Amino acid sequence: MRKPRRKVWIDFAFSIAIITLTIAAIFIVSSPGHKKEQKNNSTNATASVSIESIESTYPGIKIVTEMSNDKKAPYAIQYPQSTHNQFNEEVLSYINNERSHFLKRMDQLSKVKKDPTGELNISFKTMQHKSGHYSFVVVSGTNFSDGKTDMTIHSFHLHPSTGAMHTIADVLNRNPEHLAILSSHVKDALMADPSLQTKLANGYDKWVGPLWSNFREYALTDDAIIFYLNSQIVTDPTIGQPTVSVPLSSINSILMKAYQSEDAPPVKSEEQILKKPEKSSDQEENSEDNQKPEEQKTSNAEKTTSKRIALTFDDGPEPKVTPQILEILKRHNAKATFFMLGSRVEYYPDVAASVQQAGHELGNHTWNHPNLVKLQSARVMIEIQKTSNIIEQVTGQKATAFRPPYGAVNQRIRGLSDMPIVLWDVDTLDWQHHDPQKILEKVKQQAKDGSIILMHDIHQSTADGLDDVLTYLENEGYSFVTVSELHQ
Hints:
488 residues, alpha/beta, Actin, Chain A, domain 4, TIM Barrel, 3 domains, 7-stranded parallel beta sheet, 37% helix, globular
């Protein structure tokens, strides 16, 4: 007896099911996040991408790192991740777009150039306001073998306890009049920056006019709002996005209350401004002009015994010289500030750790000692952040001050560092003459109360002359403090 013939629709349904299951399996295997390591098929079939997430030092924030080892188109990406989905989605959308644009550009380049190469680096730094507001400044930089480079700065904002993501409009209470005042302050800051005065493009003011979109990219600190402006403001492409820092105290009246500065002076009425201050009888009796000669001498003597000076050492650590300098400082019970190069901290971690263990202040002097004014902002931030990271990793202590190499700094560089920038007023020129006696001569000629002395802990001649310098300063009544203590 012949079997009944199976209906055609059963075969068709079975085929559809097989195809559906196959597609689903492919989707699951290739889905992002399925593995910690994924294949990157856009450029090199053998390249892989690693993804890891670690806790940051900021509560509620993780750092996600993506690394591609593609030899022709590598990338290194870091971005923040929080417990709030909307914030994470916005950040990830930006990161995905930047990565996509980079890979698309590589595909286009491969069609017109043999064996093209390119690189993408995305990093970020976190700034925190006392209100709890986090500002994440994300810097994306690309460079390609055809010579084209690009750098963009984009900011994200989050209050981790509430999930609020305040724009600049929120910071200014969404008041158009407040926006006009801010615009005026930013224009003044641009004009006051000597490094930008000759590089402002014609019609630049339209990019800082009273439009919320002109001030989209900003970072909020306890002292200032830092704005990353449109790159079309300047004629020099190496500057990238010009940076302007506006002190909160100067715009206190237009800020939302949570962001107002406590250091701002109270607003005076016109009558108070015109009224001349009157001295009380107590003030007149105790004023310096009315002091008796004996009292003036006493006051001056007290000032003499409280003279303070800050010793600073750049470009270390160095395995031979730095330990000698630490020993000399110890004999004189002197504290100093060491501005370290990240590359040398990486080579000599034990020496860097010994500086911290001796109780000295740790400073950041960049990774490779470049002239920051000549670098794009993305590279500057890498130089600073990479150095801060290695100092904290090796010593367990954060760098608390920043010294730009050669003292080369402008308002843009100041806006990229969340550490106090420290220069000097006594240059021993130890790097130039390598003469211990000349170091002492420079100190005798230039040192005064509140001075910051520049030396380098990489020259043997500096270690040889340091004892005489400290002995002289002690005999002159100076005490030795770190740069942070000097500014307290």
